[in-house]
Amino acid sequence: MVRRYYDTDDAVVLVLEPSRDAPQTKGRVKLRTHSPIETLLVNDASQAIPVWDASQERSAVATYDVDFPARFVFLKNDVPPSERGYVGDKDSSGHYMIPDAGLDVGVDFPVTAHRSWPVPDVGGSGESGNEIFHRTSGLEQVAFDYLIGVPDASTSLKLYLNNAHNQYGNGVIASISLNGRLVRGYDFGPISNPNGEPGTSPEQRSRWPDQNVHLWQIPLGEFAGQPVLISLGTDPKGSTNADNFWWSRPILVTDDAQETRFITLTEDGEVAEEPLRVSNTND
Fold first, then answer.
1. How far apart are CA 94 and CA 89, in angstroms?
2. DSSP state, residue 43
């Protein structure tokens, strides 16, 4: 069954899962394309592309033995190595996705608002200052995709996130995927407090929205010399009441240690993100 499908100017993403009625871990997929492609990634590995027949304006049928979930990323053009620093344009449009169905709505999400917040490392420069964020709250999941070529084994991806909504509403789940694989999901809204005792006040039985700036840093060294599709998602969890969520542009930095960091930036310094807020859903 199709878990996720969408088409951008640079790539087509198709994620397949086994049927709920017949769960299995492996399968065989046959497909053909109706436009030529340059590169095919299946579960992060490069695969032979379907042979294109220009006279028929379609490819021959190709067969792939896969592990589920099977993440197909069809790249439309060659992807050269990316340089350090910001990825994409600060005004690049996103697109709307239906979270439960995993399908593109077919409507772009234009970036219309920017704000800045202080961060310890602006644009990977190593200097503190104000980072530019763009607002991403919408009626469905708002997705932004960035296609890069990982230049070397010391490359990491850095992002800043900020939930600026007030105490009203249920907040959002922010997520990042690489080549269709969920790497991190984090619920910035109010959540249940498992330590809240019955009979206590509502404030003690719940945690308030997380309204701090966060830093996500993800190693990309394993993809050295390969293309990677970075996908950012903002899921309103069914309600946009008071939603006000912001992302920075992705930043490619050098990190020889290839350290994974999911950090909350507080007035008292950097602390680890709350485990209770980490989401395992493939948003």
1. 11
2. T
